[in-house]
Design brief:
Distance between the termini: 18 Å
Number of helices: 6
Structural class: alpha+beta
Number of strands: 4
Largest sheet: 4 strands, antiparallel
Shape: globular
Strand content: 15-25%
């Protein structure tokens, strides 16, 4: 199980979710990161959602969630929207989870089986 395989699967999952429900993906960085992380862990990869703030250039920072996949940062929401991730700075702030996360368990229960069916069949 390689990092390359894990990141490809994460990108495939982000693209699938965006195609299925772009509004949910654009407005749900925590949900998307948690769902894809759980999906990857189910396949034996190391993945977790990270909470904090992100900032691009001189813009104001914003509460955000992204992922760490096999030790590498991956931001599924900004990536799927075609943003250059290298333009963003990230700062981990675990307390942000309380502001962003809601009904994660329900989202995981709903979406992980869909991802398994779509990407692993």
């Amino acid at each position: 199980m390689s990092k390359r395989e894990a990141l490809k699967l994460a990108r495939d999952a982000a693209a699938f979710l965006y195609e299925e429900d772009p509004e949910w993906v654009e407005g749900g960085c925590s949900d998307v990161s948690e769902v894809i992380s759980e999906f990857l862990r189910g396949q034996g990869y190391e993945a977790k959602a990270i909470y904090g703030v992100a900032k691009r250039g001189r813009e104001e920072s914003f509460y955000h969630a992204w992922m760490e996949v096999m030790g590498e940062r991956f931001d599924p929401v900004l990536w799927v929207r075609g943003r250059k991730l290298s333009e963003y700075r990230y700062e981990v702030k675990p307390r942000v989870k309380a502001a962003l996360a809601c009904d994660i368990e329900i989202q995981v229960e709903d979406w992980v089986p869909v991802l398994e069916d779509a990407l692993l069949s």
